[in-house]
Design a protein that fits this description.
By secondary structure, the chain is of the alpha/beta class. It folds into two domains: about 130 residues, Toll/interleukin-1 receptor homology (TIR) domain (Rossmann fold); about 160 residues, Orthogonal Bundle (Arc Repressor Mutant, subunit A), CATH 1.10.10. The chain has 14 helices and ten strands. Strand 7 and strand 8 form a beta hairpin. It starts with 8 loop residues before the first strand and ends with a helix.
C-alpha cells in the first residue's frame, strides 16, 4: 500500500450527475491501485471555500487530472473552469490530462481535448481493462512486451566486408573457414548451414546470402547447395579476418624469390600456415601477374615465369 506521500495525486473533474452512476466507484478503484484520487465528496466539508479547495488544493497539487466527459459534464460551468485550469497547468507544468469519455452518452468532446487520446468507457459496470489503461498512464507505464535479446549474428563481434552486410560477411567467413579446415575451396552449403542457424541466420536468409555472394563474385560454380570460393572472395575474407595477412603474402613471396621455392608443398614445409591460405596467396599473386601458376590434379601448384615485378614489389613493401 502506498503512503499518501508516495501516491500520485489525481484530481477527478466531473458533473454531479455522474457521481453515483460512475465517478464514486471509479475514484474508489483508483485509490485501491495506490492513486490518491481527489474527489469533492471526500475533500470538501461544510464551510470550506470551493475555489480554494478545488483550485488551490485539488488541481494545484495534482500530478494528473482526469476529466470525466458525459452528456452532463460538457456544458457544466464548473467542469469547464476546472478543465481550463487543468489545461493551463498542463502547459506550464506538463502534468497528465486524461479525458475519460462515457461512451453511452452522446457528448461533444471540448476542442482543447481533441488532440489528446481519450479513454472511452462503454460499460459503466464493467470497465476493468479501461481502468488498467488509465492506471498505467498515471504511473507512466506502457503495455508492451519486454525487449528480448537481439539475434546472435547482431551480437557477434565481427568485421564487415566492404559492400556486404553483416550476415553476408558472416556466411562468407564461415565458408572460408570451412575451406581452410578442409584445404579445399569447394563448399557444401549444408555443412555450414547449421553454424549459420546457430547465429540466428535462418535458411531463407542463408540462401539469399549465397545468391548475393554469387552475384558479387565472392563464390562461383554454384550448383544447388555446392559452390566454390573465388580468389576475390577469399581475398576479401582474408583481408578482413586473417591477422597479419599482408605479412603472410610477403612471406610466401620471399620464399619464391629468396629461397627459390616454386611449388606450394615446399612453401608449406617452411611456413606455419594452412595449405588453403598458401594456395590462395599463390593464386592471388598469379592474378596480379607476378608469375604463371599451374595447378595439377594431385593438388600441387607449380610456379613458372616469375616476373621481375615480384622482386620490385617486395622491395617496395
Amino acid at each position: 500500500m502506498h503512503s499518501n506521500n508516495m501516491s500520485p495525486k489525481v484530481f477527478v473533474s466531473h458533473a454531479s450527475e455522474d457521481k453515483e452512476r460512475f465517478v464514486l466507484d471509479f475514484a474508489t478503484k483508483l485509490r485501491s491501485k495506490g492513486i490518491d484520487a481527489w474527489l469533492d465528496r471526500w475533500e470538501i466539508n461544510p464551510g470550506d471555500s470551493l475555489v480554494d479547495k478545488i483550485f488551490e488544493e485539488g488541481i494545484k497539487n495534482a500530478q494528473a487530472v482526469i476529466v470525466v466527459l458525459s452528456e452532463y459534464s460538457v456544458d457544466k460551468p464548473w467542469v469547464r473552469e476546472e478543465l481550463n485550469a487543468s489545461v493551463v497547468k498542463k502547459i506550464n507544468e506538463d502534468i497528465k490530462l486524461i479525458p475519460v469519455v462515457i461512451d453511452i452518452d452522446d457528448c461533444q468532446v471540448p476542442e482543447c481535448l481533441k488532440s489528446t487520446f481519450w479513454q472511452k468507457i462503454a460499460d459503466l459496470q464493467n470497465y476493468d481493462s479501461e481502468l488498467d489503461s488509465i492506471v498505467r498512464s498515471i504511473y507512466g507505464q506502457y503495455e508492451k512486451p519486454p525487449i528480448g535479446e537481439p539475434p546472435s549474428y547482431v551480437q557477434t563481434i565481427v568485421g564487415i566486408i566492404p559492400d556486404l552486410t553483416k550476415i553476408d560477411s558472416l556466411v562468407l567467413k564461415l565458408s572460408c573457414e570451412n575451406a581452410i579446415e578442409n584445404d579445399y575451396p569447394f563448399i557444401d552449403a549444408d555443412d555450414i548451414l547449421p553454424q549459420a542457424k546457430s547465429l540466428d541466420i535462418d535458411e531463407e536468409n542463408f540462401s539469399d546470402t549465397l545468391q548475393i555472394l554469387y552475384e558479387g563474385g565472392y563464390i562461383e560454380d554454384r550448383f544447388g547447395a555446392n559452390f566454390k570460393i573465388t580468389v576475390y572472395g577469399f581475398e576479401e575474407y582474408a583481408r578482413t579476418y586473417i591477422k597479419d595477412y599482408d605479412s603472410i603474402i610477403r612471406s610466401v613471396a620471399l620464399q619464391i624469390i629468396n629461397s627459390g621455392r616454386t611449388d606450394n608443398e615446399s612453401i608449406l614445409a617452411v611456413l606455419d600456415q594452412p595449405m588453403m591460405i598458401i594456395n590462395h596467396v599463390l593464386e592471388f599473386l598469379d592474378s596480379q601477374g607476378y608469375f604463371e601458376l599451374h595447378k595439377w590434379a594431385s593438388g600441387k601448384y607449380t610456379i613458372t615465369n616469375i616476373s621481375p615485378k615480384l622482386k620490385r614489389w617486395l622491395n617496395q613493401t
